[in-house]
From TrEMBL:
TM helices/strands, residue ranges: 21-44, 79-101, 113-135, 155-178, 199-222, 257-274, 302-331, 360-382, 394-414, 482-505, 525-546
Superkingdom, natural source: Bacteria
Organism annotation: Alkalispirochaeta sphaeroplastigenens
Domain named ABC transmembrane type-1: residues: 75-275, 356-546
UniProt-annotated location(s): Cell inner membrane; Cell membrane
This protein's record includes keyword Metal-binding: no
GO CC field: plasma membrane
Membrane topology, record value: Multi-pass membrane protein
Entry protein name: ABC transporter permease
Main location per the UniProt record: membrane
GO process annotations (BP): transmembrane transport
Family note: Belongs to the binding-protein-dependent transport system permease family.
Keywords assigned: Cell inner membrane, Cell membrane, Membrane, Transmembrane, Transmembrane helix, Transport
Length: 562
């Protein structure tokens, strides 16, 4: 019998085994139904609206878009911003990761914390800090330099804010790559006479190149799909995500807003899968399973000093941005009256308490659902063979590549009419959280399952346990760290969401990030600072509690999001 025939026979046997377990079949069908309803259907609704005119198929909306300078400029601006930010953030992330894992610098734990701290921030907190520091009444521009300028609005401010906000993504991606390079390889090259620069250029950099490209692509997508920062400090620098929002909500031109969302959606999805292909096509690690005594990274004192100065410089910027938010919470009127006050806290308590309570409540509901669903999908994809297994994996991960603006518009179009009238409800917000962040839990679960031998679960099945019982009593306890890491990171993302849920909030169910944005737009910067500060404290407290209760490490929590 040929190997192909054996493989087909094995797949048939696996499928027959799945059919004998009704719980597994029902779970597979339910997951497919939910993925189709809450991921495919909303995106279909966006495409359909953008290609419909007078009840028939038409490309008139796209023709109109490409004939207007304003929208063409938004496309080119988005690409320009994404390219610049991806390049700078990848450089910063690479140098940071190299300094910590290859450079031998001191205070590694402190710098690791600083490198991932921006991840837990509201998406536009740094933009708020930049306004307070470099705006017309900014501490640095107006108070220290005596300048009356708004030059921070537009491309310069966006590049600064997004670079600091997104370099942790590159750092987390590249940390694993650089840790996978055996220092003995570099040491051997230097023992053969190569200089440190030659070793870096011919060994370290080529081995890290796939990770660098993958990090660049991820940051590029994140920059193009960013909504919070451009709407706050974009000024006249139009980008696609903001234009789609303004057309859909401000102008009421739904087809044009949908078309702009599609123009944002297509390149980001393509780039996302290109990144996955690059990371998955081969292994560039130099560590094997063979027993060996690994050396330590060998770097010169001058290089360590230079890397330390670089890391300190980035750390100072991060701390300055965070410190500005804290100080802004206690200043009576930024740029005018610097006296101490608690009135911003009082106002925030009156205006934002119910919104904050609702935000936490909905995030706490969505988090366990996200973790359970993601873990179940990971288990099915990794441990069961059934028709459509790869399709399930693809659909589950697809929402991570879809811009939040497209998700929000799609949900409004799909779930604001019969038979799904859910717009403005808590249900649609929780659903958006779950399916927006389920890829985090799926990736975390797959990574954990790869480290567990399937024979353990097979032994349970051979002893008569069903797949559901095996999953509950064997698999889930073994991957508990990954489960809680995915859940924690999902909670962080739910608490700091903006681009998708800004379309879905209502007077009854608002979100604290939308409230912060509203306060910034009416120049209540002190109130916005207080709300951002409180939001950060809550997120840090939840992360600390989860790490304490589950024994998770900091890197486990944040690497789950990559």
């Amino acid at each position: 019998m040929s190997s192909q025939a054996i493989a087909r026979a094995r797949r048939r046997a696996d499928f027959a085994q799945v059919l004998r377990e009704p719980v597994v079949v029902i779970t597979i069908l339910a997951i497919f139904a939910m993925l189709a309803l809450f991921i495919i259907y909303p995106i279909y609704a966006v495409f359909r609206l953008s290609l419909t005119q007078d009840g028939g198929f038409s490309t008139a909306v796209y023709q109109d878009l490409f004939s207007r300078v304003r929208y063409v400029r938004s496309i080119t601006n988005s690409i320009l911003l994404g390219t610049v930010v991806a390049t700078l953030a990848t450089i910063v992330g690479f140098v940071f990761a190299f300094a910590i894992y290859r450079g031998g610098i001191r205070f590694r734990g402190f710098f690791q914390t600083m490198a991932i701290l921006p991840i837990i921030s509201p998406p536009f907190m740094f933009a708020l800090s930049v306004i307070l520091l470099f705006g017309r009444n900014g501490l640095i521009t107006a108070r220290l330099l005596g300048l009356d300028t708004s030059g921070i609005y537009g491309l310069p401010g966006l590049v600064l804010v997004q670079t600091i906000n997104l370099f942790p993504i590159a750092y987390l991606t590249l940390s694993g790559i650089l840790q996978g390079i055996d220092p003995d390889v570099e040491t051997c090259a230097m023992n053969l006479g190569a200089s440190r620069f030659t070793v870096f250029r011919t060994i370290t950099l080529p081995l890290a190149k796939p990770g660098i490209l993958a990090a660049w692509l991820v940051v590029f997508v994140s920059s193009m799909t960013d909504f919070g920062n451009p709407i706050m400090i974009g000024g006249s620098f139009d980008v696609l995500s903001v234009q789609a929002y303004l057309e859909f909500t401000g102008m009421g031109n739904l087809p044009r807003g949908a078309a702009l969302a599609v123009l944002l959606l297509i390149p980001t999805v393509m780039v996302y899968f290109l990144q996955k292909y690059i990371m998955g096509r081969g292994s560039y690690a130099t560590i094997t399973g063979k027993s060996s005594k690994r050396g330590k990274p060998n770097s010169s004192p001058a290089l360590r000093a230079l890397l330390t100065v670089f890391c300190l410089g980035i750390t100072v910027i991060v701390v300055l941005f965070y410190g500005t938010i804290i100080v802004g919470s206690f200043v009576r009127l930024w740029g005018v009256d610097w006296s101490f006050t608690l009135r911003h806290f009082n106002y925030s308590w009156d205006v934002g308490l119910s919104t904050l309570r609702n935000t936490i409540f909905l995030a706490l509901i969505a988090t366990p659902i996200t973790a359970l669903m993601g873990t179940a999908i990971a288990f099915l994809v990794m441990r069961k063979r059934f028709p459509g297994r790869n399709v399930m994996s693809l659909l589950a991960m697809l929402s991570y590549a879809i811009p939040g603006t497209a998700i929000g518009i799609g949900y409004v179009l799909a779930f604001n009419v019969a038979p799904f009238r859910w717009s403005g409800t808590a249900f649609i917000l929780v659903t958006a959280y779950v399916f927006r962040h389920v890829p985090i839990a799926v990736e975390s679960g797959i990574a954990a399952l790869k480290q567990i031998s399937p024979e353990i679960e097979e032994s349970s099945t051979n002893l008569g346990a069903s797949s559901a019982r095996t999953f509950q009593n064997v698999t889930l306890p073994l991957i508990k760290p990954a489960f809680f890491a995915g859940a924690t990171f999902s909670f962080v993302r739910s608490m700091t969401a903006i681009s998708a849920i800004i379309f879905l909030v209502s007077a009854r169910w608002n979100h604290v990030t939308v409230l912060i944005l509203a306060q910034t737009e009416i120049m209540r910067l002190g109130v916005a600072s207080v709300m951002s500060f409180i939001l950060i404290l809550i997120i840090m407290a939840v992360i600390g509690i989860m790490m304490k209760l589950t024994g998770l490490k900091r890197d486990q929590v944040f690497s789950s999001g990559q």
